[in-house]
Fold this protein.
Amino acid sequence: MVTTEDSTATSAAADVARTFTPLPAPDADVAGFLYLESRLADEGRYSEWELLWADDALYWVPMHPDTDPRTQLSYIYDNRRRIKSRVAQLNTGNRHSQTPPSVMRRTLSNMEVLESTSDTVTVGSNFAVFEYRHTQRIWAGRVIHTVRRIGSGFELVSKTVHLVGAGGPLDTLAFLI
């Protein structure tokens, strides 16, 4: 016998299922490009990492999720020219904050396509970066990548990193997050 209470619960569950439709996962080639970006950063292959970026690129690590980077402070807010400068500094090996260099590995998970156009796809992922330099640290958060199809490959248009600990005291970000 079905009660009114059972019927109401079933109806509520159906409403939730319609409201919370899972977002699609990215195509394997898009995910592969994002894994490549992560691996190059982890392995300190900065010049190769830099080549992934589009000329109109933006690399942003906000202090708060709703920050306007034009009027409020960010940890990182780099255009393409500043990305090139950041990589040049890392390539010198003369950064006190990276002597000795950090050993890192990161994971990307829960990849979801947030937006897609004819030539771009925006993917949101959870991440964890495991960094070892004198002691082990874990950096975690949500990263939003926008990639553009070019020929038979991709270029990175934007990367926004929302750190779990943003807004609070952080150790130096002397590497590519």
Q: What stands out?
A: The beta strands are 53-62, 74-79, 103-116, 120-133, 135-150, 153-163. The mean pLDDT is 86.
